[in-house]
Amino acid sequence: MTTAPLNIAIAGLGTVGAETARQVLDHADHIASRAGRVLTLTAVSARDASRDRGFSMDGIAFEQDPVALAHRDDVDIVIELIGGDDGPALDLIEAALEGGKSVVTANKALLAKHGARLAVLAESKGVHLAGEASVAGGIPSLKMLREGLAANRISRISGILNGTCNYILSTMETTGRDFEDVLKEAQDLGYAEADPSFDVDGIDAAHKLALLTSIGFGSLPDFDAIDITGIRSVSSIDINSAANIGYAIRLLAIAENRDGNIVASVQPTMVPLSSGLAKVDGPLNAVAVEGQPIGSVIAVGPGAGAGATASAVLADLVEVAAGRAAPFFGCAADQLKPASNNGSADYTARFYLRLTVYDRPGVLADVTAVLRDHHVSVESILQQGRAAEGGNGTVPVVLTTHDINNSEMTAAIREIKSLDAVTAEPTVMIISGEG
Amino acid sequence: MTTAPLNIAIAGLGTVGAETARQVLDHADHIASRAGRVLTLTAVSARDASRDRGFSMDGIAFEQDPVALAHRDDVDIVIELIGGDDGPALDLIEAALEGGKSVVTANKALLAKHGARLAVLAESKGVHLAGEASVAGGIPSLKMLREGLAANRISRISGILNGTCNYILSTMETTGRDFEDVLKEAQDLGYAEADPSFDVDGIDAAHKLALLTSIGFGSLPDFDAIDITGIRSVSSIDINSAANIGYAIRLLAIAENRDGNIVASVQPTMVPLSSGLAKVDGPLNAVAVEGQPIGSVIAVGPGAGAGATASAVLADLVEVAAGRAAPFFGCAADQLKPASNNGSADYTARFYLRLTVYDRPGVLADVTAVLRDHHVSVESILQQGRAAEGGNGTVPVVLTTHDINNSEMTAAIREIKSLDAVTAEPTVMIISGEG
Fold it and tell me: What is the distance between the alpha carbons of residues B46 and B65, in angstroms, rounded to a whole number?
């Protein structure tokens, strides 16, 4: 080691922060050999100074106020693991970058909202902003896309980016149980938050997709342009229907270049059982990238958890300490193009549609007439017995279409929803031909 | 672009070299935005100057002798795509590094043999030696292991590293055809060389494993310590037997830390049909890494082909041009530990064994007595009908064992081979519990 040691600070000592601290302390030699210099944990910040987190605080300064870490002379790199897209996390990162300190963060919400501005700030100060842990947990997904595939023109990025949703969907698949029941179990097991909306409504996956999209297509992150549907409306009927035609349901985050428009969405999607994504079970994540000249690559690994997330934080730390971290977005942040997300771009797909309708004469005729008027060709249709809905006079109707333009399909669904006999919001999913 | 342009030279204009040149010429702006500077192709070397390779040679110097590229003042980075583990490829790389020029290469055989020395040379000159394209084609596998998982203590690296073998094995699996037949087809299709031994005998996979092992475990590359078995002995009987018990056969390259010994092997292995590796079909490659704190990650993608390989070459080129390429082995090359490969380390596994024996009384009793004497517990045994071997009086006996120490198993096999009734070399495979 001929290079001077670097001092690091960790803000936030939850499960990830504590694991990161333990790794830095317990495996200092290994990390030093990879970084080419010694890294010393000099300061931390957390809500509670006294809690036992499995490492000794001897010789490590404690700051009640995380922002104070940015102003310490004995801190060169700040690791932000507080969370939240504003407040102390943002204050800390801004103060650190302004003061010429590099920052490592796992904060996807913050990066999706403020990442471009913060990257410009970092680059203007000649320091690094790194966030591998913000997307797909331990999978080095940003590095793969940004550096490993640097020269490719990306056409499509797809992923399973939320482990909680994937755990719920794959458990529904293997047990036949329904959403609410599995969600409750996931909460009991600690896989889902008490307020699960960030996960099950697709927000978390969309934050991650906004970052992948930005890196892959060289455009400013644009969370608001992502068309988001969560998994609350996925029922065991949908899971069974999918299995019957050879598909599994996954919450897919997809960004693709459709004739120059970057279209990004997060939605439950039917993927072929034979595809790589259908085999991504439980809390795993996956990121698949298609582009030229590579063709396609997929990486699968743990999407969450203290060890996996710490692995990504530490990878960033090594790169930053060695002075070889790439710009967060792969190119200079002030050269990112305006976001060209355009959710209304036309595309063609097969669709799955589940309606809840009154079980009375003429309903199927009405529904199929609407579909015919919008040129939607029905591939299969199944009206299930009354018992399936518990005797309130409604029954589920499940149908799949042949390839149809999405705007035709959307118009047809709007009209179907307005039918008297249709009693609930229809469930619509794309049936993906790809993995 | 505030940084000065960089000039690059390509030695070797086969399919990969020509594709790399076309990408550099046709997508210069994209590559410049990622590298932060303009890259200009100033010189090439190839056997034949006049052949049309899909790009214009106007303004590009041609050198008959590749080593001359290293001495040109208008070349900053040399891309070596000649191949061969000595001769002009080595001369060129040495001359370039000696002259202070960075080198990008796809040459696994050369890196496995000379990589440590060349990396020391590069580091002493303050330039880069990069070789992402040498392992697993387009999959950024070295980058994932070396940088994305930098802080992990690696326990196991496993991979499908040879697309030709994987194409042959997965085609045997889906068609029921035998090795020689599928090999011939692969040769006709251009997936296998006229002399296929580098691929089907496991040499190519072992070169790649030597590099992954070195990076993952921080030790000098040691090709000679890898226990190599190719796929020539895999028959359709083995493929069927595997399928019957829920397994597929893949040529696995595995390096693992067994009680401090790094044990590396390339051998046909039975992997569970439900595992990720069993689903890696055709010419795909896969690299799986296990370590702490990550757990495990797997990446799957194209293991060969002009586009995939050029993608990896260009990724290196961008990193080198941006001045942020990591040291080839992840740590300073002069700090690599001596190789601690030890093929004789003990381990426990289930084994598959196929014998060719004379169909006469007492043979099974002799075989099973040997197994008993070596404490090998037989899980299943099947002697197939005489027709299966074409009437020369021999029949195949296929058996699987419960967990047994490898040295006991090796001793048992040695004794079984010496039995009069055993007429051919036994086929032995590990039955892997893991993917």
Answer: 8
**Residue B391 binned pLDDT confidence (cut-offs 50, 70, 90):** low
Give CA–CA dist B429/B400, Å, rounded.
9
Q: Say yes or no to pLDDT of B84 above 50.
A: yes
CB atoms within 10 A of CB A86: 11
The beta-carbon contacts of A21-28 under 8 Å, at least 24 apart in sequence, are A21/A53, A21/A55, A22/A53, A22/A54, A22/A55, A23/A310, A23/A314, A23/B151, A23/B293, A24/A314, A24/A317, A25/A55, A25/A56, A26/A55, A27/B151, A27/B153
Which residues 6+ apart lie within 8 Å of A294 measured at CB?
A: A149, A152, B138, B301, B302, B307, B308, B311
Instruction: Please provide residue B98's backbone torsions phi and psi, each rounded to the nearest 5 degrees.
Output: -55, -35
Nearest CB among B34, B296, B301 relative to A297 is that of B301
For residue B322, what is the nearest residue in chain A, using CA coordinates? A326
Task: Kindly tell me if the per-residue pLDDT of A135 is higher than 50.
Answer: yes
C-alpha closest to that of B210 among B266, B143, B160: B266
Q: Give burial (CB, 10 Å; 0-12/13-18/19+) of B23.
A: buried
Q: In terms of Cα–Cα distance, which of A270, A402, A406, A327 is closest to B319?
A: A327
Q: Which of A138, A144, A314 sits opposite B140 (nearest CB)?
A: A144
The Cα–Cα gap between A194 and A176 comes to 23
**Element (DSSP H or E) covering residue A256:** strand A247-258
ipTM confidence score:
0.94
**Residue B80, token pair as written in the block:** 């070596």
pLDDT for B333-375, tens place per residue? 999 999 865 555 688 999 999 999 998 889 999 999 999 999 9
CA–CA gap between residue B229 and residue B203 (Å, rounded): 9
Active site residue A125: no
Residues B77-97 have a mean pLDDT of: 97
**Can you tell me the distance from the alpha carbon of A380 to that of A402, in angstroms, rounded to the nearest whole number?**
9
> How many Cβ contacts (< 8 angstroms) between chains A and B?
183
The pLDDT of residue B384: 73
The token duo for B100 is 């202070």
Burial of B214: CB neighbours in 10 Å, binned 0-12, 13-18, 19+: buried
Chain B residues touching A148 at Cβ < 8 A:
132, 139-140, 143-144, 312, 315
Alpha helices in B136-258 (DSSP H): 141-143, 163-175, 179-188, 197-200, 203-217, 236-244
Helix/strand/coil for B103: strand
Q: Are A90 and A114 in contact (CB under 8 A)?
A: yes
Q: Is the dihedral of CA B47, B48, B54, B57 positive or negative?
A: positive
Q: Does residue A433 surpass a pLDDT of 80? A: no
Walk me through the domains of chain B, giving residue ranges and CATH numbers.
6-134 (3.40.50.720), 142-303 (3.30.360.10), 348-431 (3.30.70.260)
Question: Is residue B15's pLDDT more than 70?
Answer: yes
* Token code pair at residue A12: 């936030």
B36–A332 CB contact, under 8 Å: yes
Answer yes or no: is pLDDT of B19 > 90: yes
The DSSP code for B338 is P
Q: Where residue B390 falls among pLDDT bands split at 50, 70, 90?
A: low
pLDDT digits (tens, 9 = 90+) for A235-260: 999 999 999 999 999 999 999 998 88
**Which of B30, B39, B55, B147 to mutate to probe the A interface, most A CBs <10 Å?**
B147
Task: Select from B139, B293, B315 the Cβ nearest to the Cβ of A19.
Answer: B293
pLDDT in tens, A262-289: 999 999 999 998 888 888 999 899 999 9
On average, the pLDDT of chain A sits at 94
Strands (E), B51-182: 61-63, 77-80, 102-105, 129-130, 153-160
| A1-53 tens-digit pLDDT | 457 899 999 999 999 999 999 999 999 999 999 999 999 999 999 999 889 99
In angstroms, the CA B261 to CA B255 distance is: 10
